[in-house]
Structures are given as structure tokens and as C-alpha cells.
Automatic annotation (TrEMBL):
Pfam families to which the protein is assigned, alphabetical: HxlR (PF01638)
Taxonomic superkingdom: Bacteria
GO molecular function terms listed in the Swiss-Prot or TrEMBL record: DNA binding
Gene3D superfamilies in the record: Winged helix-like DNA-binding domain superfamily/Winged helix DNA-binding domain
Segments crossing the lipid bilayer: none
Stretches assigned to the HTH hxlR-type domain: 18-121
Stored InterPro entries: HTH_HxlR (IPR002577), WH-like_DNA-bd_sf (IPR036388), WH_DNA-bd_sf (IPR036390)
Keywords: DNA-binding, Transcription, Transcription regulation
Name recorded for this polypeptide: HxlR family transcriptional regulator
Amino acid sequence: MAESKENQTDNKAFTEDCHKVLMAVSDALYAIGGKWKLMIIIAMARGNKRFTEIQRQVTGISARVLSSELKDLELNGFIIKKVETGYPVSIEYELLPYSQTLEEVVTAMTKWGMQHREKIKAEMNASDSK
């Protein structure tokens, strides 16, 4: 009987821990998930500040999608939109210090992405040589 209660306690702790992890991942994916957000942040970190510069660097993104993603990134505190009035009006996007918290994530994803690409290429080459 004591073992059963201990098992239930361990199981509950495991379930709560799992729930915390799932919620944290869900929050992260909400903020930076999707095909474009991290790519936009990376392009901006490399010095691209204007809408057209970002669109040129992030190959395949439409103007409508880029505009929407920039708004989401601004709402989540990663970037700020700076508008300079005058003629012509100048609009630039700037990374906020909070975006630097993604550096480890981007580094880990870059490393894994290169590793994964090499794995797939090696498997394709192995299957081609058979």
C-alpha cells in the first residue's frame, strides 16, 4: 500500500514536470515558432534593418508575411520599429537586447541543422551507391 502511494506521488511529479516542459516549449514556439521568425532575427543580427533588406536576405518570404512576422516580433519584445519622419519617411527595425537571449537557441539549431543536413546527405549517398 505504501509503495502504491509512493508510485502515485512519483507519477504525479513526473506528470507535473512534463506539463511544465510542454508549456515552456509551447510558449517558446508561440514567440519564435514558424518558418520565418528566427530567420528574420538572424538577418537583422547581421545588420539588415530595413524592410527590403530583410526581405532580400530571408529568401522566399512575401512582403505580407514579413510585415506580419515583424509585428509579432515587436509584440513579443524582440524588435522595435523606428520611424523617422521627414521626406521620405524612413523606417528601420532594430533588435532589442532581449533578442540576444536567443543566441544559444540559434547556435544550437545551427549546429543541429548542419549535422542533420550532413546525415541526410550521407544517407542519400549510401542509398545511391547500392
